[in-house]
Write a structure and sequence with these properties.
Helix content is about 35%, strand content about 15%. It is globular.
Length: about 800
């Protein structure tokens, strides 16, 4: 880097003298000549280039290799200090000085602390050469870049990294590796840029909403993806955004900037982190461009700054249609000490008054008369404030010329995977357990091709080219038959056709009745999904009536057809059934352009409703029947494709068991996953006992599935009785024996203890004693297997079984460790 030039003269330029004389406010800190306006940045959603009709402003130079330092300062008019006259001292004051009264304990501690801070600041000032102090600035031009307080910047994370010098001006297309001036679209998953003409099939215009490239879609499906290879002799350079999201750069918010007495320039940074660097890690709801602001501060040399980035709040981020590649979203602040999150808007509202006080404290420098400018802050005050905040030890060092000068975020978060976990090879049974999770949804549900065709034809018929006709479709079936999954798969397929231009655009709103606090809240949810505004449900009902009944359009964008999917439709039934009536009445209006798809488990729901509602629901219904065992077997096999972990008879056995009871595909997947867990536990146990046994190949068999079926279809209290201790089983058998002997459901603890003693003596078991028997009864009472009388524990306390005696007999009659219990049950 070129040598930093000396600071310019303090003489105020002519064009600044007029501003200073005409303003009565406090002089603004020295600001350099502003650079040329920055060009429009690329959007996080859309890449565009200006057309030939409007000439774009010349782009500013990239700041990867900075050349010079330039700043200007203004000479403030010194304010003469009026010497204060010594106040006349009264006799009482003189007496107080002589009086040997001991000060208050807290007052002494406070005074001692202030004296220590004052002495520390004065001692530091004496050590400075020539009595110089820090000079603070609001805006600085450093090495060709203009930086102001409140800016967000990229900061070097590694020292002497060659990749930091590579910063391409325009991001290249992933397919053709060319920049050009054509329109580019960004993938919301990998943030890669694609020309519209390079896509397969090519797009005519940028679609609305989220868009995911075909490489990311194939990766989600578990397919092997081969990305395009750049031509020979060309290497693709990573942008600063890609380096930051891969933890090769820092991002920071500039809180203050100053010049040290040795001529170096520093700034106080507030760090941003990506979700991977938090303790919770990246969650499914996190956006790819989402950041968290931390409560970690650090003093960093300005040599570490690469260039600007732009961190926005949700409102500004949603409007960033074409704002560049370095745009990020930040909505929450992350506490690196307590690993907690808090919305920044709430923090700003609570600390609004405190920020005004701090700003006055930072920039009002009336007490300093011998500083270089009015923006200079006394070094002593800054030292005291810095000592109160203390250094931050959480952040690793930024790459700068002063190595080890500041601290920051370090060793927090869950991004780094432990070595033993990364090197561990997943077994076939482990892969099967991961694929059998209910959250692992396939792209399209198998065995529902006919239903998918009917739903697709219904939607395409409703959204016609000439006009949109309001319609209703009622889908019913037993739980676990793929109703919601099938509709969502159809909507994903139609979205691809909309992007290709085969179908006119529409808006899709999905609502689950289980997530609504009350049925009336559905109006608020629909209005918020259509407009983005949140109002009360009464006002939302009024506005929705104007939109669907009267044909009033809020905006031109909202004139598109609307497809409303309501899951668990039967939960919207109220006493007067007004909610269902309003929703089903809107599609009958001529200008509504509303298509309603209702899903429920009740087959005869329309017949249970009032005639005015059932007539509006229409006759279009679609029934999802329960799966038979062949379909369940196909669903399980499609999940386990390429994984050799199950025996074929085991899959068939599980499918037949579920098909005979309910035909619920979710229950079949849960049984198979539980069988895989039992088999995995059995294999690990055998490996611990005999290492040679772990080398042989083992699959999930019928016995594992049968054990899982018994767990799934048995009541929980029976499983507790079967798995309890020997003494607990004797305790329950004694209660059943006492019930059969006396014919009374209640018994006292004293009688039960005598019965347990007789059973143990007759069958060679040792009597545990009253104290141990008390603890056993308390454990069974905590599990709600027996009911205990409230009050202190004594011999006359009454006990009673919480379940029928037949359940106890069923659970204990086949006990292997206590076979003699069967004769007492």
């Amino acid at each position: 880097m070129a040598e930093t030039p000396k600071k310019r003269s303090k003489q105020t330029p002519k064009h600044q003298q007029h501003d200073l004389s005409s303003s009565n406010a406090i002089t603004i800190p020295a600001t350099p000549v502003a650079l040329e306006p920055t060009p429009v940045r690329r959007s996080s959603r859309l890449y565009t280039t200006p057309t030939a009709a409007t000439a774009p402003p010349p782009p500013p130079p990239r700041f990867t290799r900075r050349k010079s330092l330039n700043f200007t300062t203004t000479t403030p008019t010194p304010i003469p200090k009026t010497p204060k006259k010594p106040a006349p001292q009264s006799q009482e004051d003189a007496a107080k000085q002589i009086s040997p009264i001991s000060p208050d304990r807290y007052e002494t501690r406070r005074k001692r602390k202030l004296d220590e801070e004052k002495n520390a600041g004065l001692a530091k000032n004496k050590d400075l050469k020539g009595g110089k102090k820090r000079v603070y600035y609001r805006k600085v031009v450093y090495d060709g870049g203009e930086f102001s307080i409140g800016d967000d910047v990229y900061v070097k994370r590694r020292e002497n990294a060659e990749s930091d010098n590579e910063d391409p001006e325009v991001e290249e297309c992933v397919m053709c590796f060319k920049a050009g001036r054509a329109v580019m679209i960004e993938c919301d998953e990998c943030l890669g840029g694609f020309h519209l003409k390079c896509l397969k099939p090519p797009l005519k215009e940028v679609p609305e909403g989220d868009w995911i490239c075909r490489f990311c879609e194939a990766t989600k499906l578990g397919k092997n993806v081969e990305l395009p290879v750049p031509p020979a002799g060309k290497k693709r350079a990573r942008t600063a955004k890609e380096k930051f999201l891969s933890s090769d750069l820092w991002a920071a918010h500039i809180e203050s900037m100053w010049k040290e007495v040795d001529g170096t320039y520093w700034f106080r940074s507030r760090w941003y982190i990506i979700p991977e660097e938090t303790a919770a890690g990246r969650q499914p709801h996190n956006l790819r461009r989402e950041l968290y602001r931390t409560n970690e501060f650090a003093d960093v040399e300005m040599e570490s700054i690469i260039r600007h980035c732009y961190v926005m709040n949700p409102k500004d981020f949603s409007k960033a249609a074409d704002e560049g590649d370095d745009v990020f979203l930040c909505e929450y602040e992350y506490d690196v000490c307590w690993h907690s999150f808090k919305r920044i808007a709430e923090i700003s509202n609570n600390e609004e008054d405190a920020e005004e006080d701090e700003s006055d404290k930072d920039w009002n420098s009336c007490e300093i008369t011998d500083s270089d400018s009015e923006d200079d802050t006394d070094y002593k005050k800054e030292k005291i404030n810095g000592s109160q905040r203390g250094p931050s030890f959480g952040h690793s060092l930024a790459a700068n010329l002063r190595k080890g000068q500041f601290f920051g975020l370090q060793k927090i978060g869950a991004k780094k995977i432990p070595e033993h976990t990364r090197c561990h090879k997943q077994t076939e049974i482990g892969k099967a357990k991961a694929m059998l999770l209910l959250a692992c949804l396939p792209k399209s549900p198998p065995c529902r091709n006919k239903e998918m065709e009917e739903i697709t034809a219904f939607i395409k018929g409703a959204v016609s080219d000439g006009q949109c006709l309001g319609k209703c479709l009622y889908i019913h079936g037993v739980p676990g038959t793929g109703k919601t999954m099938t509709v969502l798969a159809v909507m994903r397929t139609l979205k691809i056709e909309v992007d290709s231009g085969n179908i006119k655009p529409y808006c899709f709103v999905e609502i689950n009745g289980l997530k609504l606090a009350s049925p009336e809240n559905i109006y608020r949810v629909i209005y918020e999904a259509l407009t983005g505004h949140r109002v009360s449900w009464k006002k939302a009902l009024h506005l929705l009536n104007e939109r669907f009944s009267n044909g009033t359009n809020w905006e031109e964008e909202n004139n598109k057809p609307c497809i409303l999917l309501i899951d668990e439709l039967d939960l919207l039934v109220t006493r007067n059934q007004s909610v269902l009536y309003n929703i089903l009445d809107w599609p009958t209006k001529p200008h509504s352009k509303l298509i309603v798809i209702g899903i429920a488990n009740t087959m005869d729901l329309p017949e249970k409703l009032l005639p005015r509602i059932s007539s509006r629901m229409g006759i279009q219904r679609l029934c999802f029947g329960p799966y038979n065992y062949q379909q369940l077997q196909e669903i399980i096999s499609s999940r386990l494709k390429g994984i050799d972990a199950f025996e074929k008879p085991a899959i068939e056995f599980a499918s037949r068991k579920v098909a005979a009871v309910s035909g619920d595909a979710r229950r079949a997947l849960e049984i198979c996953r539980r069988a895989a867990e039992l088999a995995d536990y059995r294999l690990r146990k055998s490996q611990s006992l005999n290492d040679s046994a772990g080398t042989r190949r083992s699959l999930v068999g019928v016995a594992d599935v049968e054990a899982a079926v018994k767990e799934m279809f048995q009541a929980p209290h029976i499983q507790v009785m079967k798995s309890c201790s020997k003494l607990s089983k004797i305790f329950l058998a004694a209660m059943v024996h006492e019930l059969y002997k006396t014919g009374m459901g209640e018994t006292s603890f004293e009688k039960l203890a005598m019965t347990v003693s007789c059973l143990c003596t007759s069958n060679g078991e040792a009597f545990p004693g009253f104290d141990t028997l008390f603890r056993v009864g308390c454990k069974l009472g905590e599990c709600r297997i027996i009911l205990c009388e409230a009050g202190v524990r004594h011999k006359l306390q009454k006990l009673q079984l919480n379940f029928p005696s037949d359940d106890v007999t069923f659970a204990l009659k086949d006990s292997k460790d206590l076979p003699w219990l069967a004769k007492y049950l």
